[in-house]
Every structure is written in C-alpha cells, then in structure tokens.
Amino acid sequence: MSFEAGQPAAAAQRPDAERTLQEHIARLEESNRFHQLFVDILSHDLMNPVWIAENYLRLVMDGDLPDDKRAFYDGMRGSLAKARGILADARTYLRIQDLVAFTAESIDLGRLVAAVVENFALLGREKGQEIRTTLAEGAVIAASPLIKEVVHQLLSNAIKFGRPGAAVAVKVWVRINDGPRVRLEVSDRGPGVPEPDRERIFQRFGSMEKGPITGVGLGLAIVRRVVDLHGGRVWVEENPGGGSIFVAEFPAAD
To answer: What is the DSSP letter of 44?
Structure first.
C-alpha cells in the first residue's frame, strides 16, 4: 500500500529532475561557448593589436632617436613583448586544459630541441648566454606537436632567469632503467628554486613565496599539462653548480 502511494510522488519528481539536468547541460554548453569565445578573443582581438603596436614601435626605433627617447621606446617594446607572451600562454593553456586525447606521431626529441634552440640563439646572445646542447640520436617519443611547448617554455625560462653571461645546458638522452624513457634536461645558472616551491611552480598561476623570482605564471603549468598528456613526468632539481635543472621524461616510442 505504501509503495503504491509513493509512486505518484516519484513520478512527479522525475520532470523536476529532468528539468534540472537539462538546465545544468545548458549552463555547461553556455560555459563552453564562452570559453571558446575567450580563446578567440585572446587569439585575435587582443594578440593582433599588441603585435601591430610592436611592429610600429620597431619602425620608430629604426630611425634616429635621442638616447633618452630610445630607452623609453625600448621599455615600451619590452612591455609589449611581455604582454604578447602572457596572452600566448593564456591562449595555449585554455586550449589544452580540457584536452584528453590527441593524435600521436613519432617525434625525435633531439631534433625538435635542436630546432627550438636555434630559434632561441639570438635571445641567448643578447644576454651573453651560450646554449650548449648534448642531444642523443634516436630519442624518439610518440607525441603531438604540443610537445614543442615543453621545450619552448623550459628554454625560455632558463634564459630569462639565468645570469647574464652564464651558459644554459640542454640535454636529451635515453634512460633504460625501468624501461626505455627519453629525458630532457634544461639547466640554468639562475637563482634556483627553493625546495618548498618545487611543486608549486608547476601549478596554474603558481609563484614562489621566497627568493627573487615571483609571478611564474602559466608557462610551467603548460609544461606540466603537456607532459601529463604524454604519460610523462616533470620536476625541478638543484643544479650542483648553482641554479636549477628542469627535467621532463617521456616513455620512449616502441
């Protein structure tokens, strides 16, 4: 008797539950549309004006300028370049944070690193930093082109935080213990990362509470996310000669 009496009440609750579910789905779809809109804004509406302003400023600086004005314009150019980097990192992070699968291809990590290092050579020379590489042959992993972000971010950080005139070392090799794995090491001679901060800096908007480096931002969070997607690990160690060694390790391709 009590079971039958409860049936109308349960039936009346079903439309409410279905309506709540549909409202929740609608909110998720709206959130996804807003997410995509924000990515598009970062990609075009914000990036393009910054890029155009940088180019106009470069044209101005190519002309004859008094030293005081040149220093002023150089500061503006540096700020625009920093803004462009922040926007690019935000765009990349938004695109990969919900990614769960990708199409993999065989990528020789040593060759990829060599290409990225070549792109950073000028920046390194501007700080008097030599980028030294030790790249093993046959260090092949199954990866997506996103893996380039790992190399780019780690090398960019090493140059940015390394001492002027100090070398940056990049090493790729195959470790055979516990199964073949390809390891990327990027070493710098910067201030180093205190041990309590070595996990925090890989978190989104992570920053160090101590030491001279603050506001690490999204770069290392992008590294962690891409490495995780590829079934790898990433961490930072103390450089025995002073500074840091960032290590990313991936399963070797079959």
So the answer is: I
In degrees and rounded to multiples of 5, residue 46 shows phi and psi of -100, -40
What are the CA-CA distances from residue 58 to residues 45, 53, 73, 145, 215 (Å)?
Answer: 21, 9, 9, 31, 28
The burial class, CB within 10 Å (0-12 / 13-18 / 19+), for 136 is middle
- Choose among 89, 95, 85: nearest CA to 35: 95
Average pLDDT, integer, range 115-120: 93
pLDDT at 216: 42
* Structure-model confidence comparison of residues 12 and 122, the more confident one: 122
CA distances from 56 to 46, 52, 77, 123, 202 (A): 16, 6, 10, 21, 35
Positive or negative, the Cα torsion across 102, 103, 109, 111?
negative
Q: pLDDT at residue 7 above 90?
A: no
Q: Give the Cα separation of 84 and 59 in Å (integer).
A: 18
Token pair in block for residue 87: 């926007």
pLDDT over 90, % of the chain: 41
| pLDDT over 70 percentage in the chain | 81
Domain ranges, ordered by start, for the chain: 2-96, 105-251
The whole-angstrom separation of Cα 86 and Cα 46 is 11
Fold of 105-251: Heat Shock Protein 90 (3.30.565)
Whole-angstrom distance, CA of residue 145 vs CA of residue 226: 10
Q: Which of 244, 240, 241, 162 is nearest to 202 (CA)?
A: 244
Whether the pLDDT of residue 152 is over 80: the answer is yes
Range with top average pLDDT, 2-11, 14-23, 133-142:
133-142
Q: Angle at the Cα of 245 (from 239 to 246), degrees rounded to 5?
A: 165
